[in-house]
Specification:
By secondary structure, the protein is an alpha/beta fold. It has 24 helices and 18 strands.
Length: 614
Amino acid sequence: MPETLSDAVVGRLVAWGVDTIFGIPGDGINGFVEALRKADERMRFVHVRHEEVGALAAVGYAKFTGRLGACFATSGPGAAHLINGLLDAKMDQAPVLAITGLTYHDLIGTANLQGVDSDRLLAPFCVYSERIMGPAHVESAVDEACRRALGLRGPAHLAIPIDFQSMPMDGTKASAENVPGHSAPYFERPVRTPERSRLEAAAKLFSGKRKIAILAGAGARGAGDALEAVAERLGAPIIKAMLGKDCVPDDSPYAIGGTGHTGSLPAKLAMEECDALLIVGSTMPFLQWYPRPGQAACVQIDDRPERIGMRYPVDVGLAGDAGATLRALLPMLPWNEDLSFLEAAQRRMAGWWKLMGERGSRQVRPMKPQVPAWQLSTLLADDAILCGDAGTVAYWINRQVMLRRGQRFSFSGTNCTMAAGLAYAIGAQAAFPGRQVVAFVGDGALTMQLGDLLTLVQHRLPVKVVVLKNDTLALERWEQMMYLGNPEYGNGLIGCDFAGLAAACGILGVRIVDPARCREQLRDALASEGPALIECVVDPNEPALESPIPGEHAERFLEALRRGEPDRDAVAAGVLDSLRQEERTVPEAARGPTRKLMRQLEGKKYEQPMEKRQ
């Protein structure tokens, strides 16, 4: 049979290094699916159960490999289902290419079946979105889409009309202006460093500074050794945005935990006390966790110049690759001989890890959600890939899981979508079949994508899924109380027998209810062949709190209790216990708002009716 347009598209993707694609067949994309069938020895097709999962799997693949992730969907509703995954790729800077169908070329714009113009539909969520207009357009369109996705680190999209998908490549001639062979499947990743004068200005800024902090994000991945060398020279603790959790290991002597809502107390205090800040590859969006504007002299390193100064006033911006720029900057930096700031942060971090260990080792029932996270941390393989999810699981991952050198982590960061954990794990396991891949998710997120447990079985992906079952959207519950002062509402979930459901899918299902057996059961499940689902039944009243708790959160929490929070005595007891633990282990956590809230909870002041408001 003659080569079709879709054959040429697949061949060009192979030339770009694409070896895996995630998606679902459909009548608006089946001409492309036929090309995948013929190329199955060169490109692996992973058949997912929902297009959104396919797009998110492509994001996970791209994040963990640095290569182009690929997905496809049929026209109309299939293309629409890709949107959240493409948004995730755009917000977290992951190179992804999506292929969608389009109605017949001569019926576009006539309200035909599934006749949505997917190139226009997806354009706001992509760095490039075009329709392929015929055989002569394939090479230049595919090359441009791949270059844009890799160069701009974002999602690109190509739409192909149904009748064009199976068109023979010799069916039409190129225009007179289109020179055959003018485009090539080639991309060179730039490694830029700033001019010497900029590096010298940055180094000079740190002269005389004694309380220097480093904030590192996803852009610092691969620069861990240089980052630690700079931290040593400046006597600076490293604070990690959650997307950069794996840029240096959590057991590094310079690492003092994460920042933002899920961060550590030592990181929060370091930001409050520093007189200089070095930001490396991060635009962490939580502005309250930066130093006060004007408090700290700031140098920011980012390979995207438009991101410099986005979150904090910058004195010297260094537009360049994180690793190369740090290595060029290192010999120019002054030695900070005063290590008191770093040593104070390290002492606090030792206390913080002690607190995390205590919380992760409690033997009470119902089991605390920190217990599975703490035990999982010690059981992960040295080269494990951990995929997280939105919700309270992000707290437990950022605080309880101590990533070691060589381990990888990601989750949906800036987009912060639920239901990315399992999808990311599908993408990661497809990319690295010999590595341990674990998805750590909540029950609310997992029930959004239960069908793709069957994807693990169908494609023999030995992903281990650890799900915390508390029968509630726990993060929304705490945010309703702490942020708004409202009694929680609408978050309850009818219970699901996840282990039984896994067994029905042909997956090993394990149910953990006893914290004393948690480590043993987790260890055995992780060691099993094939996919496994580990259902951990945990306490729904365990609070996910910022540390230290802000005064306005404390006041609104009491307001929520007074207004009729269901199970308010149990909820109040959980918060009081958590605050007492922090006060005992990390005394700096016990600030005025914390002590005031503790006294009010001890005296059950929330039982008093609220004062009438004027």
